[in-house]
Amino acid sequence: MTTPLVPFGKSRGERADAARNRERLLEAARAVIAEQGTSQVTMDGLAERAGLGKGTVFRRFGSRAGIFRALLDDDERRFQERVLSGPPPLGPGADPVRRLVAYGCERVPFLLEHHAIARAAVDRSHPTPAGAASMTQPHLRMLLGLAGLPPAHLDGLTVQLTAALEGPLMLYLSAEEVPELPEPGAPHPLVDGWRFLVERLVGG
Amino acid sequence: MTTPLVPFGKSRGERADAARNRERLLEAARAVIAEQGTSQVTMDGLAERAGLGKGTVFRRFGSRAGIFRALLDDDERRFQERVLSGPPPLGPGADPVRRLVAYGCERVPFLLEHHAIARAAVDRSHPTPAGAASMTQPHLRMLLGLAGLPPAHLDGLTVQLTAALEGPLMLYLSAEEVPELPEPGAPHPLVDGWRFLVERLVGG
DNA sequence: ACTATAAACGGACTTTACCCCGCTTAGTGT
DNA sequence: ACACTAAGCGGGGTAAAGTCCGTTTATAGT
Question: Contacts of residue A124 in chain B, CB cutoff 8 Å?
């Protein structure tokens, strides 16, 4: 009976129509965002645009913020793969300090690009903005540990550095203040700041 | 005609009934928060409780988040005074590094105490959570400058350290993870982390 | 006191996130 | 093929944020 083994990433138990509708909804969301910005994304609007019922939208994503989280997760997964198994210094192989720096250098542009969506994914009922944080936090923790940070400070510093990296783009920058990211490779104040921070913190 | 010169802090131009109603509403808000938590604060509920119309609530505070911002500002002003003109090392007089450390030591408990309200003051339509940030950011910037940080890194680091200090309590800690703050003076991981961060950053 | 006026008030109205529950359908075992 | 069942679907219903505009009222100038 040609039972396909893991036809897509979805871990067994999601029906084919459900998966199709999810894709349809995400595409609709991307279209609305591109055309009119995140603030114009409404549950009813998405449902109509995708030719589905409103209830379906909620079943798939749980909440409005959930839609943006799902959009982020898509790109987030790719980012995560580069961190976990890509080439150094972002991936494994380089020494911890260089990996920390590299992580920030890649993460800041990533967040700048996803700024609007990431902000829309913040939800007062959920503590962490996205799956985003759940990747950054353990990764930083591991690297900081390897870099020889005193264990007594590890927990507090992990949380603070996570906030230092992701917080600015969640909390302290408005949409208008996010300029086009300059030419790739050009210096960005947040990247510079991060490098300086890490090197002073664990390099000395 | 007994025109009182600045009878209260309100800087001329706010009518007496407006001021009275503002107080009434803030009191109602504090009561609801104490009884049922921030999530149960609704604009209609507040209006009814204060015996006013809903339009008035919006006129006074602009938005739901605005109410929480107003509540914070009250305490924030007191905090600010201690920073600007209180005794060192929090106030002026000590050297910049000690003032930075002291700022974190006082700020973390402050934010822990106001955690629920501070989170409720976050609003996706407004970039910074409260007047909170507008105090922390320039203050840190000044101290970091005095502490001899290279000007090239000053802007980026200011934003990041602000996020490092305030971000954890906005974004990365859920309500359940905020324990009663231990006895005053007892060590807190975030305070320790902050001290370590600052000393490494500008002390070395 | 009286009037003018700008601010404040109130509550109906609109929009939108989110809930609910009866109906439909894809997947599975025979 | 067929029936069975759990998952998915739809859209009407609720509650709460935010807007609007006609009415009321505090204050200043005379």
Answer: 119-120, 122
Q: Which nucleotides of C are covered by protein (CB under 7 A)?
A: 7-13, 15-21, 25-28
**Nearest residue of chain A to residue B192 (CA atoms):** A153
Extract the tokens encoding B148. 């001899």
CATH superfamily of the domain spanning A16-62: Homeodomain-like (1.10.10.60)
What count of other Cβ atoms lies within 10 Å of the Cβ of residue B55?
10
Torsion angles phi and psi, residue B94, rounded to 5: -85, 170
Read off the pTM: 0.84
Q: Provide Rg for chain B, Cα atoms.
A: 19
Identify, with chain letter, the residue nearest to nucleotide D19 (CA–C1'): B55
Structure tokens at B64: 């739901």
Note down pLDDT in tens along chain B; length 204 residues.
333 444 444 345 788 999 999 999 999 999 999 999 999 999 999 999 999 999 999 999 999 999 999 999 989 999 999 999 999 999 999 999 999 999 999 999 999 889 889 888 887 777 666 555 578 999 999 999 999 999 999 988 999 999 999 888 877 666 556 656 666 667 788 999 999 999 999 876
